[in-house]
Amino acid sequence: MHRIEMKKAIRILSFLLPVLLVGAIPVQSKVYIDINAPAFQRFPIAITDFYDLGESAPVGDMPIWFSDIIGSKLDMTGFFRVIDKKAFLENPEKQAFTAADINFQDWSVLKVDFLLKGGFIVKDQDLTVEFRLYDVVEGRMILGRRYQGKLNDRLKMVLKFIDEMLVELTGESGVFDTKIAVVGKSGTTSEIYLIDFDDTNTVKLTNFKSLTMMPSWSPDGDYITFTSYRDGNPDHYVLRRKPFSYRRISAFNGLNLAGPWSPDGKKMLTVLTKDGNEEIYIRDFTNNSLKRITNNPAIDVSPVWSPDGENIAFVSDRSGSPQIFVMNADGGEVRRLTYEGNYNTSPSWSPKGNRIAFEGRAGGAFQIFTINEDGSGLVQVTFEPGGCEDPTWSPNGLYIAFATRQRGEAKVCIITANGLNFRPLKGARGISSFQGPSWSPHMGTP
Amino acid sequence: MIRHRFLTTAAVIFFAAAFVMVAGCAKQQALEESVAGTTPAVVVADDKSGVLAPGEKKELAVAESVVEDKDAALKAAALEEQAAREKAEKERQQQLLTEAAAFEDIGFDFDKYDLKPEARAAIQKLGEWLLANQAFVVTVEGHCDERGTTEYNLALGDRRANAAAEYLVALGVPAKRITTISYGEELPLDPGHNEEAWTKNRRDHFVITIKN
Question: B93-123 as b/e, with b when 16 or more CB fall inside 10 Å?
């Protein structure tokens, strides 16, 4: 393709920019990848170095930066296998950017399913990037996007495109705009930390120098609730992220355990021992009331809402050993969910609503399992020798984060919901252990 | 000692007052005789009952100075005695606290919070000690091993602490002298990840302090 034509094409495309950028176009796309299939294989994809479409400024390693960063982020999603550039047959000097200019034979012989190409124009601090995703077998473009912005925003543009690409191929948006709250422990104190999904940034959220744990996000991602021994007793707090502030919302004698917000953000689940033993309560913020929904001499803890807010899964040892139960949101119709094994705890309800993840014993160690909400379809998803605990779902329901132990170190890891693509998070230096993860909702921007 | 000093001072004041009163009464009687029928106001104005004759005053002053000297000595002795007693008391409490610190943790089985026979025996000793030493209170800390969920373990630790607390109450220790707190799996005694460490970590720990 001639450069002049390309520029013309870019000018025409520029008019479409606002529409394309919003990304809210309801595209009835074919779902290429069934990510819920148990035998799911990563899709081979080739990413060529990006073309300099502007020839105006020195671009340095920008062509390689784009292809490499996209490759590493796509690898992180667990849905793609990025083909080594050394295997490419196409002449990199030739700007084969459009379907007409690409020789798809060059790619199909490499057994590549998808080909991703891109070009950019740099003008002072302004950057225009165009991404094109091709289906190699069909020899056609299946997704094209162009973004304009500042040079410094190029990573955001990359993540935005990957998100669109995931929607196109899997029917689900990505989670590069999410964080995972974890409990970082050091000696006899623990604090809440926030780690980005792609593990590029870790922020220490609390600094109470006491035991602080059990973080849980508000549906808008602006608030985090947790339990802390800050004032000597395990009390319940709510923290606002920006601007930073926090307050203690419950300090009864005994346990004041933080639980998740309801999907509408108006209520919160909590466990209190103020009435003599562990019971589950709903705290309603609209009228500041506290309603007890369990009444049993056994331990009742770890309540979580179903995504529609109509049911609550929780842990109880009322049948002799800790098991997962489900009840209506008003406490009625309690039914036992798990029967396998004698220790099943830590339920986490998939945002998709169909599966509940929990930790149970398998052999000598704890592992993560998932089960349908009617108690059928039990699947063991982790097989780590060091054991796995505390599962939490990503907001798109495609991943589960959990705590595990590797070579004596407690770490938070991510897997795809089918149990593949194990990825430990690095976290922060100087912290001996990371545990108790809680996945944020979508935040909108990476 | 304080009491002793008080009595001495009180006696001195009593005798001085008695002397004054006797002298005053005698004088007043004479005055009333000479001015019989006059108004009480005159009587009051002329009443010198509080004033001592010069000789009497001197005598009292001597007595007072003697008392003062004696008082200072007593005061010093009292302070010394008090310090010694406080020290002894402190030592005794320290010794008791050392004694209290020797009460060992009681162990539990995995996912259990019922008291084992040896745990009951240990709590009985603690109970007897608390009944004998009323100035002390106890905090029962419930702990778990690292296996299982944070929340479930907090609940389990709560149950373990309460099990010991309830037994202490049954033994006659007033409930208001017992506090419980669960630390779940958060504060292991042994940081290891094996059966030996887990056994040590499933425990109630007793923290005995002096009542405020």
Answer: eeebeeebeebebbbbeebebebeeebeebb
Question: DSSP label at A299?
Answer: -
Residues B191 and B128 in one domain: yes
Q: Which residues of A touch B (CB under 8 A)?
A: 183, 188, 190, 211, 213-214, 233-234, 254-255, 257, 271, 273, 277-278, 299, 301-302, 315, 317, 321-322, 343, 345-346, 359, 366, 387, 389-390, 405, 408, 435-436
Tell me which residue range forms the domain holding B200. Answer: 103-210
Structural domains present in chain A = 3-25+38-170 (3.40.50.10070), 179-439 (2.120.10.30)
| Same domain assignment for residues B66 and B144 | no
- HSE, CB side, 13 Å, CA atoms: give it for residue A412: 34
Dump pLDDT digits (tens) for A322-380: 999 999 999 999 999 999 999 999 999 999 888 999 999 998 899 999 999 999 999 99
Q: How many CB pairs under 8 A join A and B?
A: 73
Query: pLDDT truncated to tens, each residue of chain B (212 aa)?
Result: 444 544 445 444 444 444 444 444 444 444 333 434 444 443 343 444 445 555 666 666 666 677 778 888 889 989 999 999 999 888 888 888 888 888 999 999 999 999 999 999 999 999 999 999 999 999 999 999 999 999 999 999 999 999 999 999 999 999 999 999 999 999 999 999 899 999 999 999 999 999 87
Residue at B96 is within a domain: no
Contact yes or no for A272/A282 (Cβ under 8 A): no
- Contact call for residues A256 and A265 (beta carbons, < 8 A): no
Q: Is B27 part of any domain?
A: yes
* Assembly ipTM: 0.86
- A65 vs A47, A79, A120, A174, CA distance in Å? 11, 21, 12, 21
